[in-house]
Amino acid sequence: MKTILSITPLAIEKDSRTLKMAYTFARYGYESIVIEGEESVSIDKKKLPFKLITIPFYYGEWTYSIYKRIKTHRRISTKLLELFRGISYKLVGDSLKLDSWLLPKIDLVYLHYFGQRQLAKILSIKNKNCPIIYDAHDFYPIIYSTLGEDMANITETEESRCIEQAKQMVTVCDGLVQLYENRFAMKPNVIRNCQEMRELEPITDVRKQLGLDESFFLAIVVSGSAKIGQSINESLYALADLPDHIHIVLLGKKYEQFYDTIYKLDLQHRVHLVQVVSPKQVINFIKSANISLILYYPYDVNFLNALPNGFFQSINAELPILYPNTLPEIYKICEQYELGIPIDPQDTNSIKNAILYASISPKQLQRFRENAKLATEKLSWEEEEKKLIKIIQKYV
Description:
Elements: E1 3-8, H1 16-27, E2 31-36, E3 51-54, H2 59-73, H3 78-95, E4 108-111, H4 117-126, E5 132-136, H5 140-145, H6 149-165, E6 168-171, H7 174-184, E7 189-190, H8 206-210, E8 217-225, H9 232-240, E9 246-253, H10 259-264, E10 271-274, H11 282-286, E11 291-293, H12 301-304, H13 309-316, E12 321-324, H14 328-337, E13 340-343, H15 348-359, H16 362-376, H17 381-392
Parallel strand pairs: 1-2, 1-4, 2-3, 4-5, 5-6, 6-7, 8-9, 8-11, 9-10, 11-12, 12-13
Helix pairs in contact: 1-17, 9-15
């Protein structure tokens, strides 16, 4: 049996992409192992079809501390930084005796973050230079450019070396393919982060949990957490001008920051914050809503090319979608399958008019639901994993 080792800086419970892939590798007959950078606490490890190892990952904190020293003293050379980066994981590996007694022979390393390339390199060398596949979940040069030129240069150099040592590169959408090809002269394959539909768990749906019968029109925003790049305030101001039977549900963390606006607009009885729903329960939870609001706008190139989990979950829940007309990846899918109504998420009137139209157009919403059901046959992890396995089979 061939062994695939996945490496992620996150706890596997917080990284749905790595988790789905680890399951896929096991499902297709590989021995699947995951090294996570934070310890998962809500997953029953005994029930996983793969081995889970926790190696604490401090790269972000360490790099930022180096960055602050650069800004303060400007005396740390690039070569010295490379030396620190090289020994940081060597020390971790040595201290945990990351040798054959802990891990079997590895046939392929699947790396989910360039900052862990030293660990991937060490493990590859220990296993006769087995191939490495690098999966870029975002376009990282844009993310790190916000920390200043020095930090951007350090991280871009690190990612460039990661790409050079990888046999193959993967990313999440066509837009990032173009960005990476232009920046690093490497064309990744696309594996979209679609929802796993085979392991959904039951849950009381959102309408029943909130005690709202069918006379209420529910618009739901599905996101892991509130973030810059979402037009939440605009949607709240839109709601304030809509009839009282229309409510918005904000599903995810950190939406408490909008309490001031909610109370200012007297919406506390029409805006519902729901924090904790397991990823395997999201689809069954949101199904009873009337529409899904996708409120991302092109804050940067990662948002411009976003295909968020909540988008696919909304499709798989067969919800009509109010989708941004400014994000080409989302727009392309919604237009192809006729999944809903385009909006300008930064325009309160655009959001308001689309919600109002949806609330008085039940036949149109039913058509969108039927289209979403058909789209689910193509937009699921079951389909995406077939592409993933074709890539894997080139190397193991």
